[in-house]
Design a protein that fits this description.
Blueprint: E1 5-6, E2 38-46, E3 65-74, E4 81-88, H1 90-100, E5 108-110, H2 116-120
Parallel strand pairs: 1-2, 4-5
Antiparallel strand pairs: 2-3, 3-4
Amino acid sequence: MAPNLVVERVRPGTLLDDPGLDCVPDAAVGRVAKEGDLNAEIRRLHSPDVDTFEHFRPPCDDDFALIIQVIVGPQGTIGEESFDVELITPKRLAARIRDGGPQCGRHLLIVNEYNYAQVDA
């Protein structure tokens, strides 16, 4: 059986719905980490919305939304998966709520303004 992928480095025996853990896949929540779980690494960030994500500047730093693909793979081996996240400002999110009603916050990375260095950190 293939080992499970845990995106956060955790000690075996850690309960994976611990609020102190970030980026644990939904399928792993409530599961206890065990020996053999793999650690993942972010390989790169990409946006299908812009030519060069690193040099992109939105027309308005505090009112935009942008899809980011986070390319993640098991540490030290080949293979990777893409996870989509929407980088969005509170101002843009408020406009969506005003225009379309309640919004699901899943897969949103909410920032006050565009700052590639912060997103890449």
